[in-house]
Each structure stands twice: as C-alpha cells, then as structure tokens.
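[job 4471] stage=fold_predict status=RUNNING
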Amino acid sequence: MIVEVWSDSTEDDDRGPKFKMYRKIPSLREYVMIDQSAPYIEHYRRDGHFWVLQTLDGLEAVLRLRSLDCEIDLTEIYRQVEWAEQKPKSKKRKKS
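[job 4471] inference complete, writing structure tokens
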C-alpha cells in the first residue's frame, strides 16, 4: 500500500506520472491519496488487472483497507488538521 497526501502543487503529479509508475509495481494492492485541504480521499484498489476507485467525501466516511484488514474513520485521519477556514464538510473534485 502507498499513501500520498497531496496539495494543490502536487496533485497533478500524484494522479498522473506517480500513479502510472506505481501501477507497475506487481505487489501494490492499494493506493490512497489524501487531500490536505478538505476531508476527501481517493482510494484505488487493484482488482485483478483493473484498478477500482472509491472516493471518500466528508468526515463521516470510513476508509477500508483490505491489505491491512482495517478500517479508519476520516475523523481520525483528519483529527489534528487545523483548517484554514471553517471546517469543510466535503469537497467536490473535478474528474480527471
């Protein structure tokens, strides 16, 4: 499993060249991208020859990691985050 925390300046690289390179790692089963500015996570899971995307949007969501056999609430992931403005409930992402 690989986990990336992205910012506006790294998001394109994390979604593009890095993920393309990571997909070539045979043992990689999960790739998790965490947004640092809002409670939003993209969780990619290998399913045979395909990658399945699950988006988690909002603090009420739960990240389920099969490779570690565990679940993590987004409230726990973002527990120590100090939001620049009022804490956002969710963030709509552009599709790429």
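[job 4471] summary: The chain has one domain: 2-77.
[job 4471] exit 0
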